[in-house]
User: Which sequence fits this backbone?
């Protein structure tokens, strides 16, 4: 029926509908990230994946994607009637972005839902992790994810934040809740944490199990340009100094536009002891940049795979930053210069990285952890084993982090 | 800065970023439906549109799409460095689906946001209508759009409904609201009315102007298969009898799963006088099929470009149904057989169509309107001038319909 219903308008309008009828094999199952009814991509029991595309006139088709998919690109083979396919090696569990390279052009897979990544709509594949049900939609009470529009004085534009309200929010109209501000990574947007990250189900499950406090989670779009400000150019090798103006504009959005909107619109506890900030990758950088600069606003600060920036005014490429340059006395405007004061003021500093992430991330974050601990700064360090700079790392991070908040 | 931020992860990981730098001309502006920062598609003052794609190795690229885009497909021309482009004739205002045909394969435009249509993620272009600000995001109080998960006993699956709550919903905890159940068309899903249709902004604007009652709007996914039921095959030429089992399953979802969930979760007025159902195209068919069958549940029924089905058990192709077959005595299980009783029981029957829609829609809906009026059935008939079987028709429809509800 689903197949039928999709094509009804086409049928009514006299168009035929082209549908994949390929089967990837009896032992495989369509990915949960497929559009409903699409048989491929299909995942085999060993986590190898069969991808297909109908492209009778194409000369070459490849599959490429995120690290956990394996070392691609994977050339597809042309079969009968222009049916291209390939079965890739076993993938790492979790969510991976991917795309087809069709005669040299990167295109989305029409069989996949799309996910905002790399600054555009990108295909994604959900590879199940055996035994991991902490991000599944389980028969427990569920919160809502609300789209909230607000006018930013900083940027002069209407912005949209997504707001998770925990189960029971509407039914307990006198209860007030703490708030976690949770940011996506570079190239993603405010939809990342719920669509790719499944943050709402992670929270639902933790709250149902009594492992996390019921909390509001606010996910905003992590880009901002001040009124009249021109956008910086993209340049591989950009430096912290290149990033800074945009981070400062986003800081003003968070502090002066978003937090007042949230505190006015939801039943929050509007003080620092009930406010956390966390983010992944670029969002982790923003969390350290903004959160450590506003410890009057946040008592909990968490960076998930966020590059450590030793000097925010450096003109050296980010990727070249050496962990040896990280000085706990001066970093982040001296936030750590008095470890005792920091420890008594900050309820939680949380840093994490996946063990399969590039050296850039592991060395930088690991080096900062070592230096901070040596200086006497109290922190939680979490490693996600075997996962790369991808969403499975950040799901695990959130599952570790959320229970530590607002205790 | 936005450009920069998107590519940060790529930069950090050592990838270069490829970005459109093409300009469509000084008189054009990027479409609001583009991903942020993408300069094309760009819309000229006469509503002609420039599309571009980087495809150095492609042999042919065309643009194709919805009716309002014009009579395509439009062949693109290869310029320097594999830069393909075309400027299409002036388009009809409104939202149009479109796609590229790249060496014979239909693919999404990486510069466009994606919209769920045709059973997959599809590119879309928003062409402004001069003077129309009823669907703009204006400086008025805004409601929220909430994602609500619920377990359907009918299908055995977790389903997601999107729920618009009007401005002031949280601030007036003793106020109860009427509910409009609002369905998308074939090939679309529960996101259609807010992403393509901008229903939340239409309601915000109407409510702010005092033209519509504050109401809750529930948008569900209009497909359902009972537990263990196999999905019907897609077949151009399918008949009402082919459609019926799926519609009946969806009917049970609405009546037995969704309405009880909504009435238990939100401050509704849970009676028929405060409950409406409306839908577009396939959703209009569903509204007449379900709403007229449950006049004990709905006092307001609206079909937006919904094909009229004279006989739900017919095995003739839908597209072949003649308006002459529509018998007001027997249609829809005799719902109209006693026009006086119908008129006193039903607060509103609303039917609409766009004047540029195919004959299939215009003749069927127009014929039913004529027959119903001749029989003495009271109804509102609305024509959207110059618009096709597309979203601009349905935005106008909602803007006409919503003020008539719950009066």
Assistant:
């Amino acid at each position: 029926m689903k197949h039928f219903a999709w094509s009804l308008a086409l049928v009514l309008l006299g168009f035929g509908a082209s549908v994949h009828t390929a089967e990837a094999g009896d032992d495989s199952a369509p990915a949960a990230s497929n559009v409903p009814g699409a048989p491929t991509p299909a995942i085999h029991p060993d986590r190898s994946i069969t991808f297909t595309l109908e492209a009778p006139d194409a000369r070459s088709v490849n599959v490429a994607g995120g690290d956990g998919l394996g070392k691609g690109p994977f050339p597809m083979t042309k079969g009968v009637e222009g049916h291209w396919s390939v079965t890739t090696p076993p993938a790492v569990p979790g969510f991976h972005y991917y795309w087809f390279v069709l005669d040299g052009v990167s295109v989305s897979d029409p069989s996949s839902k799309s996910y905002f990544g790399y600054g555009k709509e990108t295909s994604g594949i959900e590879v199940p992790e055996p035994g991991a049900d902490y991000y599944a939609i389980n028969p427990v009470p569920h919160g809502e994810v609300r789209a909230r529009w607000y006018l930013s004085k900083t940027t002069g534009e209407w912005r949209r934040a997504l707001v998770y309200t925990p189960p029971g929010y509407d039914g307990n109209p006198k209860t007030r809740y703490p708030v976690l501000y949770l940011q996506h990574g570079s190239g993603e947007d405010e939809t990342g944490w719920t669509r790719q990250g499944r943050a709402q189900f992670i929270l639902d499950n933790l709250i149902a199990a009594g492992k996390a406090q019921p909390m509001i989670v606010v996910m905003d779009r992590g880009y901002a340009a001040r009124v009249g400000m021109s956008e910086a150019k993209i340049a591989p090798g950009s430096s912290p100094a290149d990033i800074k103006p945009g981070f400062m504009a986003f800081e003003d959005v968070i502090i002066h536009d978003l937090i007042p909107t949230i505190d006015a619109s939801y039943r929050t506890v509007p003080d620092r002891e009930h406010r956390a900030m966390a983010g992944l990758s670029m969002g982790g950088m923003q969390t350290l940049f903004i959160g450590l600069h506003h410890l009057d606003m946040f008592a909990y600060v968490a960076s998930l795979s966020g590059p450590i920036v030793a000097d925010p005014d450096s003109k050296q490429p980010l990727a070249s930053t050496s962990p040896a340059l990280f000085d706990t006395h001066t970093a982040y405007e001296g936030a750590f210069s008095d470890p005792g004061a920091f420890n008594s003021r900050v309820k939680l500093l949380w840093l994490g990285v996946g063990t399969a992430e590039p050296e850039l991330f592991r060395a930088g974050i690991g080096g900062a952890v070592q230096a901070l601990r040596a200086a006497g700064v109290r922190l939680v360090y979490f490693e996600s084993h075997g996962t790369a700079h991808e969403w499975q790392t950040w799901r695990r991070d959130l599952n570790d982090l959320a229970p530590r908040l607002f205790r």
Residues 1-22 of chain B have pLDDT under 50 and may be disordered. Residues 240-265 of chain B form the longest helix (26 residues).
